[in-house]
Amino acid sequence: MLEIERKVAEAGVLRPWLVGMAVALLLFALGELLIHLEQARAYEAAQARLQSAAGAMRGRLESELNSTFSVALSAASLVSAKPDFSSRDYERLAQSLMAWHPDLRNIALAPDNVVRYVYPLAGNEAVLGVNLEEVAGQRDAVKWLRQEWKPVLTGPLELVQGGKGFVHRVPVIVLDADGADHYWGQVSVAIDATTIFEKTGISQGSDIVYALRARDFNGILGKVFVGPERIFAEKGSVSMSVAMPGGNWQLAARWREPVAGFSWKTLAWHALAFLLAAGAGCLVVFAANGRQRLQVLASHDSLTGLANRHQFLLQTESFIALATRQKYPFTLLNLDLDNFKCINDDFGHDAGDALLVHVATQARECLRASDLIARFGGDEFMVLLPDTEQGPQLDVLVARLRQAIECDLPIKGHTLNVGVSVGVASYPRDGFSLEDLMRVSDFNMYADKRQRKKRQDEVRA
User: What is the largest CA-CA distance in the chain?
Assistant: First the structure.
């Protein structure tokens, strides 16, 4: 059995392991691909939810801001229709508008860009009489408003009356006596957007982090005034425009916790893919080893590890066909142990098996690696010697083979003297077919056996 294990090992050197590793790597790669696809699907789904949430936030912002900024548009329309309004008219108008929009800091009227009216007056006295074209940080927007006659939103900026806020300016256009339009001035509304941000929830803690920045009337992006600026450049964030009369804000959003990144769940999936791939690879190795073992057992003698009868016949037929084409000789040896049945009967089958293993071992040591040795059945062995003819060289080989086999063999406390009879047949001298060669070698083996027995009888006599 040890020889069979060696044959199995020789037949499967690296091959089952290579196949197993290839299968394991393939399955692991497939598992990693499926994990990647699932992560990509989850990421896309998360990004779709983020896009939807950001879109809803934009909608709330636009609704609140447009509602608030409509105050300036309404005031400008009323002033355009009645430029000769009184202070009392303005106060009633402003009071009414601010009642609907408590987020407003003040509503100011600035004929020719100089503030003449402001509501409420308390806390806003500093803005009265100010020429807005001369206020640092506001003059460019005011000049642009005069030139373009379009609403403009600026901020956040330092307000003249104190604090920071956003200013929404709407030009007031009136008809002169000739029916021509001319720039009268502006309505400006100062707002503190904190309340608006609280209403929309953009500044509150949630699973999503938002950031806002403004784009001024020249299209230049300003500083971020809500949230961290880095969100606009981070991978996985989404951004969109928030449109309003006279202005444009940029909204960015990302998940507070990264969607793609290290997680114990992902690690568990990778570990599972590795374990499944490794398990499948081991199963493939086990199956391949089992298959090779079956192949070896089907073609080799389980006791001696030599080729069995079936394997010997197959290889010899192929060898004869090759020798016929290439016209080179070979020799067939038929080895048969003397008195093997008596040894089995007297000392048991274990002793007989040990004797057969001894013969196989000595034959392998005496013969070449290219020679084919087979246990043909029972105590009979066949040897095919390529490129060997009968003659002195063959006689020396047979003698050496006899000497190696016919030694005193200690088995179970007994010393057995093993004898072997050898029959020789050569191709093409003794035949061209395996049947002919086996018949000749068998005949010569029995002739050798008779001669050996005759000599032994003469010695005993």
Answer: 164
